[in-house]
Write a structure and sequence with these properties.
By secondary structure, this protein is α/β, with parallel strands linked by helices. Helices cover about 40% and strands about 20% of the residues. The strands form three sheets. The chain has a ten-stranded mixed sheet with strand order 3-4-5-6-9-10-11-12-13-14, sandwiched between helices. It has a two-stranded parallel sheet with strand order 1-2. Strands 7-8 form a two-stranded antiparallel sheet. Helix 8 packs parallel to helix 11 and helix 12 runs parallel beside helix 13. The longest helix is centred in the middle third of the chain and has 15 residues. The two termini are about 30 Å apart. About 40% of the residues are buried. The protein binds S-adenosyl-L-homocysteine and iron/sulfur cluster (SF4).
Length: about 350
């Protein structure tokens, strides 16, 4: 039997086609869409304005299993990390980040959610908890979007900024990612504007070009972490496949297609990529593509030897970028530790339940 489509994985056009096949009028498809995305019921029986017979037909035809919230780390007014259990017992995590008054002002109502795109990751960056267990599987569009709906339900608030910086490499899950982008940005769906959606990638060049051609004005962040091939290849195996020059060529192509500025993410790891010469090369490269640089002092991962440099080294690194005229941010507050360390909660959980494979 063919696998059933999930109700949170269909676009409006697909819904209309499915309902036509069921012999149902278009307005019924819109009613279901409304239950799924606006009223947000968690069962087909909850769709109370549908005839009972149609509800039974929908149960036959569609899947509507949802992830379950199993754990929260953090507190209400700081960054909170949620762990969700998927239908096959796998775990996925996402991180809810309220605006920091120091960065955005007291009145900012910015609420960012960092979502995952895969269970594990195949790219094996040496510093990353997500890469540590290897790759398990892609998340479906329904599993990607369900993270947003669940986080909003737990928080009792609407997310208005979305970043794909959780577990996994979003651009290696292109079919489900592009579907999810449509569900997230459409008015009939979650309704977060494309300009408030950032995809982060470790540098998959062909997919960056593909995303550059995507009609929506999505934002892009690149996990660079090394300004030269020598340094980057040491910690990111993906650099053997697409080296820094080739990556930047794709970023120039991105600039030719999109209005939004690119962001280069650069984790600072002591003795690995924090040499000030790297800062000088990074400054040149960032200027060449008019990118902002986000410096992130490394978060300790259990079982890995890497450490963050001293605060003063981090500031020196930032100052070189800023004096070269590059917009560079550096956050040293400890409160943000949890934020950039996606993959760690799942690592603990899978170790605990002995699902390490
Ligand atoms: N695979 C994509 C999306 C994940 S983003 C990518 O790599 O861009 C997750 C971000 O957190 C990446 O920039 C990653 O390099 C960074 N990161 C991973 N482990 C980290 C750690 N221990 N401390 C700080 N940042 C980390
Ligand atoms: Fe995968 Fe990104 Fe982690 Fe690298 S940094 S292992 S690409 S999730």
């Amino acid at each position: 039997m063919a696998t059933k489509h999930h109700l949170r994985s269909l676009t409006r056009d697909e819904f209309l086609a499915e309902f036509k096949e069921l012999g149902q009028p278009a307005y019924r498809a819109d009613q279901v869409l409304d239950w799924v995305w606006k009223k947000r019921v968690d069962s087909i029986d909850g769709m109370t304005n549908l005839p009972a017979k149609l509800r039974e037909a929908l149960k036959e035809k569609f899947d509507f299993t949802l992830p379950i919230h199993t754990r929260t780390q953090g507190s209400v007014d700081t960054t909170r990390k949620f762990l969700f259990k998927l239908h096959d017992g796998r775990f996925v995590e996402c991180v809810l980040i309220p605006a920091s008054p120091a960065l955005y002002g007291e009145k900012s109502d910015r609420l960012t959610l960092c979502v995952s795109s895969q269970v594990g990751c195949a790219f094996g960056c040496k510093f990353c908890a997500s890469g540590l267990l290897g790759f398990t599987r892609n998340l479906s569009a329904a599993e990607i979007t369900s993270q947003i709906l669940l986080a909003e339900e737990i928080a009792g608030a609407r997310v208005n900024n979305l970043v794909f910086m959780g577990m996994g490499e979003p651009l290696a899950n292109w079919p489900n990612l592009s579907k999810a982008i449509e569900l997230i940005t459409s008015d009939w769906g979650i309704g977060i504007g494309a300009r408030h959606l950032t995809i982060s990638t470790s540098g998959l060049v062909p997919q960056i070009r593909k995303l550059a051609d995507h009609p929506r004005q999505i934002r892009l962040a690149i996990s660079l972490h090394g300004a030269t091939d020598e340094v980057r290849s040491q910690i990111m195996p993906v650099n053997e496949r697409w080296q820094v020059d080739e990556l930047f060529e794709a970023l120039r192509y991105w600039n030719s297609r999109k209005k939004q500025h690119l962001t280069l993410e650069y984790i600072l790891i002591e003795g690995i990529n924090d040499d000030l010469e790297q800062a000088r090369i990074l400054a040149k490269r960032a200027k060449g593509i008019r990118a902002k640089v986000n410096l992130i002092p490394y978060n300790k991962v259990e079982g890995l030897p890497w450490k963050r440099p001293s605060d003063s080294r981090c500031r020196q690194f930032r100052d070189i970028l800023q004096s070269a005229g590059v917009s560079a941010t550096l956050r040293l507050e400890k409160g943000h530790d949890i934020e950039a360390a996606c993959g760690q909660l799942r690592l603990q959980e899978e170790n605990k339940v002995g699902e390490l494979s």
